[in-house]
Backbone:
């Protein structure tokens, strides 16, 4: 593959082509190919051992692939040192020297990316403000909370104004508020800095919430990829589970089966009063992400005077992930 | 914002990225060096290790000076031992710092961020290496006043300090590099420290051999092959035994070759392959046999450099004379006595190689037997064959260690020509020594130094921490 291929699309900031890697004959990556556009967030999913870490390490030049090639901002993987100048990385287990202040740390890395000490210091102060750490700029990193360290890690990943940002489990160990703040920050990076972001996470809900695209890896190869909407639509089970009093089960079944987009309603889920409502999107093409169909089901039950004790939606990214990985295992 | 404006903004961002990616203002090694230096000396182990080092040096110097007061140890030997200890302990410290450099960062998960920067890996290693060896100059600076004090005005002082500086620098570079090399290849700090310290102890092992094993052919060979022992032997011979550099140069080759080998491995081979996970590179694993051959060749080179040219022996026994330049002396313990001997070959033919030896006897029948080794580090000197009518002078120094009445005399012995022959020793007239025992609480005046330097370092440490804290509190970190 020529370098020009990667340059043909100006907004394409990352292109991976048939990346392969084995550890002592055990394949960890078996032909990984995908691309990332500027300003978009790509969720990188897969169960433990799927090859995510290997893929990220290869793409961040920490590890060499056995074969295949990738381009970052048009630069071939044959030039790892130049690629390092174009990427920002928040590794999963990023450690910090404790006896250094936040601004000292960022200034140090800023200098390593080619800035003078003064330039690096000014830029570091701006970044600390961007990640909301300006108040603690002169505090020792050892005194930072986990959330603050993660934000500092993101600031460090942005020190070179990267074209592609890799974030490996950025919300790991954070409280819900911390998770939410960090995800907003990730969105801001993609939208305002116009950087391509690769987000690795086990929290599928956060991937679904903020990612534009998704790649699901299993046993070293991609089993699903595309926009989040596309991938979710591929799910066979767009299911709503509704909990109603046992005496209303038959009425509810009849009411729901009368709806046009309902494929099947079953009560044999093993728990009394639970109905599994399987929907058929091929009839109206509704997006499961927007969930208008779920509202129609609930509305129909309420109109029929059937009390709803609780309900849960299935058919999101989590179910797609479980379903796809389950299929591969089988 | 309309589409055009968005794209213009995007282009500006991309443009900024491109503009900033060039012209690095400082070389990466300098940035890493500055950072590592700050980390080592302000918050890291550096100042604490130096504190420990100064206490160790103070205690050992006090012991040496006390021994000197009792005349158990002459100044030259004190200088040698102080320098030898300073180098040995500094190397231990250098090894700890070097062994922690990369495997420690791996364990603390701070290495990945460094490897993700566009900084050249060799420059990263160089920056860390220079910071790690910064301990040695300070350690040597701390050592100098102790050596000066213990020298008691001995004229070998400058030579001793220069030799110590040269050997210490050479070995510090080599051992710091070795520690870093092991650290680059180790995936845990424990492994790195274990391997480094094991090799260090192996290098120190020959000292533990019985005396005979150290002085025989094998002992000499081992000393030549062991960079640590070889350098120590070199230092001892230069300071204590008045040998010239040319005479003891073979003992230096192991250190020089070890340092060169480590440098080549560290900077040409390991540094460019520095990675996140450690482990010995496949290239080395595959070329194990080539590595063994190279090591054996290096050993062969050291051995061949150590073989002295055979000296032609002249098999003749000429009438010899030996004279001393003093007849008697009253002296205190702790004071030194210098005297000269002259060996004259009054025969018409050249002599065999000659050996001059010192003997001391206690004139008090109930007194302790004197071991001349305790009084002088040099009780034997070797002379090349003397031509007919030629003479040679020797300088001697003794430090009486016990009070009493003694007679000292010198003998010159021609070297026998073969296993079955012998030779006739010739003795000088005696030197009558009357020794008065003297002891002091502050031997050699070393006490203020032994206490003062650690206190100064502690004050320095407190000041550093105070300035650092003030900087953080005022937001000028």
Residues:
């Amino acid at each position: 593959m020529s370098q020009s291929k990667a340059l043909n699309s100006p907004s394409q900031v990352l292109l991976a082509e048939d990346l392969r890697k084995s550890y002592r004959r055990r394949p960890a990556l078996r032909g990984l190919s995908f691309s990332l556009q500027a300003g978009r967030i790509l969720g990188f999913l897969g169960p433990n051992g799927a090859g995510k870490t290997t893929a990220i390490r290869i793409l961040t030049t920490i590890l060499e692939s056995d074969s295949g090639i990738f381009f970052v901002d048009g630069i071939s993987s044959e030039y790892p040192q130049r690629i390092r100048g174009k990427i920002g990385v928040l590794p999963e287990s990023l450690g910090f020297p404790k006896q250094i202040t936040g601004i000292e740390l960022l200034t140090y890395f800023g200098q390593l990316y080619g800035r003078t000490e003064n330039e690096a210091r000014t830029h570091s102060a701006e970044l600390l403000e961007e990640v909301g750490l300006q108040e603690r700029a002169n505090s020792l990193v050892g005194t930072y909370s986990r959330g603050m360290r993660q934000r500092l890690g993101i600031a460090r990943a942005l020190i070179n104004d990267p074209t592609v940002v890799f974030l490996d489990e950025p919300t790991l160990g954070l409280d819900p508020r911390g998770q939410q703040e960090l995800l907003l920050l990730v969105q801001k990076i993609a939208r305002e800095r116009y950087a391509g972001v690769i987000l690795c996470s086990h929290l599928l809900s956060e991937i679904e919430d903020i990612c534009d695209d998704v790649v699901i890896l299993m046993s070293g190869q991609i089993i699903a990829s595309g926009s989040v909407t596309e991938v979710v639509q591929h799910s066979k089970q767009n299911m709503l589970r509704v909990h109603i009093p046992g005496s209303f089960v038959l009425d509810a079944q009849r009411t729901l089966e009368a709806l046009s987009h309902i494929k099947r309603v079953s009560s044999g889920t093993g728990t009394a009063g639970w109905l599994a409502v399987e929907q058929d999107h091929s009839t109206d093409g509704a997006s499961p992400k927007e969930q208008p169909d779920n509202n129609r089901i609930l509305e129909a039950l309420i109109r029929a005077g059937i009390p709803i004790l609780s309900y849960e939606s299935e058919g999101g990214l989590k179910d797609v992930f479980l379903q796809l990985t389950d299929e591969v295992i089988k | 914002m309309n589409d055009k404006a968005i794209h213009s903004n995007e282009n500006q961002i991309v443009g900024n990225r491109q503009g900033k990616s060039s012209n690095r203002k400082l070389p990466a090694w300098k940035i890493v060096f500055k950072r590592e230096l700050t980390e080592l000396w302000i918050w890291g182990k550096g100042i604490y290790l130096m504190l420990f080092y100064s206490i160790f040096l103070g205690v050992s110097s006090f012991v040496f000076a006390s021994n000197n007061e009792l005349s158990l140890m002459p100044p030259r030997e004190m200088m040698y031992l102080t320098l030898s200890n300073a180098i040995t302990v500094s190397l231990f410290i250098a090894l700890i710092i070097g062994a922690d450099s990369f495997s420690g960062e791996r364990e603390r998960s701070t290495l990945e961020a460094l490897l993700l920067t566009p900084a050249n890996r060799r420059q990263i290693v160089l920056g860390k290496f220079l910071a790690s060896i910064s301990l040695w100059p300070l350690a040597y600076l701390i050592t100098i006043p102790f050596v000066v004090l213990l020298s008691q005005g001995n004229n070998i002082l400058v030579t001793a300090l220069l030799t110590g500086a040269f050997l210490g620098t050479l070995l510090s570079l080599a051992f710091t590099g070795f520690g870093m090399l092991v650290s680059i290849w180790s995936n845990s700090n424990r492994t790195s420290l274990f391997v480094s310290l094991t090799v260090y102890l192996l290098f120190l092992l020959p000292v533990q051999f019985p005396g005979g094993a150290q002085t025989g052919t094998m002992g000499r060979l081992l000393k030549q092959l062991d960079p640590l022992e070889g350098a120590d032997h070199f230092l001892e011979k230069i300071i204590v035994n008045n040998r010239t550099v040319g005479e003891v140069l073979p003992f230096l080759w192991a250190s020089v070759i070890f340092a060169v080998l480590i440098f080549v491995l560290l900077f040409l081979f390991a540094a460019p392959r520095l990675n996140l996970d450690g482990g010995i590179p496949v290239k080395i694993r595959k070329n194990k046999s080539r590595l063994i051959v190279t090591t054996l060749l290096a050993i062969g080179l050291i051995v061949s450099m150590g073989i002295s040219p055979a000296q032609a022996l002249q098999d003749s026994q000429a009438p010899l004379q030996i004279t001393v330049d003093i007849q008697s002396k009253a002296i205190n313990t702790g004071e030194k006595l210098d005297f000269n001997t002259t060996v004259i070959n009054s025969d018409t033919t050249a002599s065999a190689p000659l050996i001059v030896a010192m003997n001391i006897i206690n004139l008090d029948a109930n007194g302790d037997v004197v071991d001349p080794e305790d009084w002088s580090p040099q009780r034997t000197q070797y002379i090349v064959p003397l031509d007919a009518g030629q003479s040679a002078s020797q300088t001697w120094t003794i430090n009486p260690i016990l009070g009493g009445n003694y007679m000292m005399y010198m003998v010159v012995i021609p070297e026998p020509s073969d296993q079955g022959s012998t030779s006739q020793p010739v003795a000088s007239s005696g030197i009558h020594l009357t020794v008065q025992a003297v002891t002091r609480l502050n031997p050699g005046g070393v006490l203020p130094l032994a206490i003062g330097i650690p206190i100064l370092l502690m004050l320095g440490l407190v000041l550093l921490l105070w300035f650092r804290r003030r900087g953080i509190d005022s937001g000028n970190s």
